[in-house]
Design goal:
The protein is α/β, with parallel strands linked by helices. It has three domains: 116 residues, 3-Layer(aba) Sandwich (D-Maltodextrin-Binding Protein, domain 2), CATH 3.40.190.10; 88 residues, Periplasmic binding protein-like II (D-Maltodextrin-Binding Protein, domain 2); 68 residues, Alpha-Beta Plaits (2-Layer Sandwich). Helices cover 27% and strands 32% of the residues. It contains eight helices and 15 strands. A six-stranded mixed sheet has the order 2-3-1-4-11-5, sandwiched between helices. A five-stranded mixed sheet has the order 8-7-9-6-10. It is globular and about 80 Å long. The chain starts with a strand and ends in a 6-residue tail after the last strand. It binds phosphoribosyl ATP (PRT) and zinc ion (ZN). Phosphoribosyl ATP binds next to helix 3, strand 9 and helix 5.
């Protein structure tokens, strides 16, 4: 049995649950419970606030955790970051009021900076050799300058819309974050095996994201060209059709290039093109 801590509610909750589900791990629907068991994998889910996940994993209260890299870096707990999960992407940035002059990090010397991430900010300012007054606040950081609580802020930015709404401009992008899988450093061999099984499943899910399975028929003398249109494939599958001189070709294509490739394939004589959703890619 392995225990994974995920965010109880908030931005990472839904995608964390979805990732487990796509990896074939369903969890009893128990919004009110702190701990829930999976029926189809020896796994328990512990629902926590994201701030508490790094420590829970470091202490061994949970074996694994899904949490923003920003929290891992801030909490400075002894955990291993074993996999980047590709969702919850954001950055931690410094921002100042729009009208303020800004000429590099030195402009922040002696200023008061409001943040919920004092440790990351402290490390950054030390690296830059800049002394400033770090003012830790738990939330609504972006209003601090307008109410006279700070001269600058250091906070999470995603689209940048919140900064604009609050009359601020982003002046330094300090770290990039996304949801990561963290693991305790003292996993038993049994738990390490379960972690490896989980990672194998997560990777299969990630690989299939944005990919489509394409089947088409084409004349045999066009096969070479078709293979050139489908780069990156080790070797597409070819099956002879009952109709003399024709074959069926199966390939995996990234959704982003799907239409371009299909037009090229049509141009060389491909017919009866089927595009199917791809569930999992296991290599
Ligand atoms: O209750 P709990 O403590 O668990 O949740 P929380 O309120 O501390 O965190 P939550 O759910 O807001 O965010 C969880 C994690 O999501 C963060 O730690 C980040 O890793 C990640 N994440 C990704 C974000 C954002 N994007 C994001 N945009 N977290 C917060 N924001 C905020 C940002 O601070 C800004 O105020 O959303 C606002 C909108 O951002 P813009 O730039 O798109 O306007
Ligand atoms: Zn939090």
């Amino acid at each position: 049995m392995i225990r994974i801590a995920i965010q109880a509610k908030g931005r990472l909750n839904e995608e964390s649950v979805a990732l487990l589900r796509e990896a074939g791990i369903t969890i009893e629907d128990s919004k009110r419970k702190l701990l829930a068991r999976s029926d189809d994998f020896p796994l328990e889910v512990l629902y926590l606030r994201d701030d508490d996940i790094p420590q829970a994993v470091a202490m061994g209260v949970a074996d694994l955790g899904i949490v923003g890299l920003n929290e891992v870096e801030e909490k400075e707990q002894e955990v291993d970051t074993v996999h980047r999960l590709g969702f919850g992407k954001c950055r931690l940035s410094l921002a100042v009021p729009k009208a303020d002059a800004y000429e590099g990090v030195r402009s922040l010397a002696g200023k008061r900076i409001a943040t919920s991430y004092p440790n990351i900010l402290k490390r950054f300012l030390n690296e830059q050799g800049v002394q400033a007054d770090i003012h830790e606040i738990a939330g609504s950081v972006e209003i601090a300058p307008a109410v006279g609580m700070a001269d600058a802020i250091f906070d999470i930015v995603s689209s940048g819309g919140t900064l604009i709404t609050n009359g601020l401009k982003e002046v330094e992008k300090v770290i990039w974050s996304e949801a990561v899988l963290v693991a305790s450093r003292n996993l038993s061999p049994e738990k390490r095996t379960l972690l490896n099984q989980l990672l194998f499943r997560f990777e299969a899910v990630e690989r299939s994201r944005g990919m489509k399975y394409v089947l088409l028929n084409l004349p045999n003398d066009r096969i070479e060209e078709a293979i050139r249109i489908l780069p990156g494939m080790k070797s597409p599958t070819l099956l002879p059709l009952a109709q003399e001189g024709w074959s069926s070709l199966h390939a995996v294509i990234n959704e982003k290039e799907l239409w371009k490739r299909i037009e090229q394939l049509k141009a060389i004589g491909a017919e009866d093109i089927l595009v199917l959703a791809l569930e999992k890619m296991i290599l």
